[in-house]
Amino acid sequence: MTSEPPLVPLSVRPISAAEHLAFVRSRPSVSFLQTPAWAQVKNEWRGESIGWFDGSTIVGAALVLYRQLPRLKRYLAYLPEGPDIDWSDGDVARWLTPMAAHLKKQGAFGIRMGPPVITRRWRAATIKQAIADPVLGSLSDVPADERDEAAIELRATLSALGWKEIPTEGGFSAGQPKFNFQLPLAGRDEADLLAGMNQLWRRNIKKAAKAGVEVTTGSRDDLAEFHRVYAETAERDSFTPRPLSYFQRMWDALSAEEPDRLVLYLARHEGDLVAATTMVRVGEHAWYSYGASTTQKRDVRGSNAIQWQMMRDALAAGATTYDMRGITETLDPGDSHVGLIQFKVGTGGEAVEYLGEWDLPLNRALHLGFTTYMRRRG
Question: Where are the alpha helices (DSSP H) in 197-295?
Answer without folding.
Answer: 199-211, 223-237, 244-257
